[in-house]
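Hey team,

Filing this mostly as a record. A colleague (T.K.) asked me to run one chain through the structure pipeline before their review meeting, and I want the input and output archived in the tracker in case anyone asks later how it was produced. No errors, nothing strange. Just documentation.

Input sequence:
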Amino acid sequence: MARRSIHLSDNRAEATITHHAQAKGGRYVAKLAGETAEGYLEWEPRGNDVRVATHTVVPPEIGGRGIAAQLVNRLVKDARKQGFRIVPQCSYVEAKFRKNPEWADLRAE
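Output structure:
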């Protein structure tokens, strides 16, 4: 899968984000009203208390609206609520961790 840079603009849209747990990890899925394209953030478990954020993907049809940021924010919110830490393997998640030093306590290596 090709990677592409995502640049946020002022054209932000509120997404509905759902979490889908799977046997070997999970996926946060973002949907916008009136759109068929979906963005997602995938993670894999490392033990019981660490999730490795492996990919964040937002299709061009819904890009530039803050969807990727909302997906990462949901992962961080769940980490605080559920007590797990995050390995930001995905370059986008890594960039968000660098921009949000208040998340340092949630970072795992």
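Quick notes for T.K.: The chain is about 25% helix and 30% strand. The chain has one domain: 16-103.
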